[in-house]
Amino acid sequence: xxxxxxxxxxxxxxxxxxxxxxxxxxxxxxxxxxxxxxxxxxxxxxxxxxxxxxxxxxxxxxxxxxxxxxxxxxxxxxxxxxxxxxxxxxxxxxxxxxxxxxxxxxxxxxxxxxxxxxxxxxxxxxxxxxxxxxxxxxxxxxxxxxxxx
Length: 149
Description:
single chain; alpha+beta; four-stranded antiparallel sheet; 2 helices
């Protein structure tokens, strides 16, 4: 058994060394039992796109972990937010177990929008006018009250 373990470690070391030497190699194709070759190709194409790029014209609330009024974690715009987190264009005004109220300045110089989001909701303004108010968007999910100051 010990000899087999040593052999396996040696084999893995050789395989990883050969892969590391070829720095220009394409990522290994996805082997799948569930997807067709065309589906695998489509998935690989999506993986090549920049996964970190986020659409700044939408506001998405992923999840809320609520322990208390001053002890919570929110996943907003794909980032982890706590009571200490703040951004000039985005401020969390209130967190409750099932909703988050944010003040969002979607365009520089515009008045901030007060938006209420529930977990897994995305706010997509159809248009934000020059005075900072938002017109209703049919693309949002759920009832998202928006008010301008």
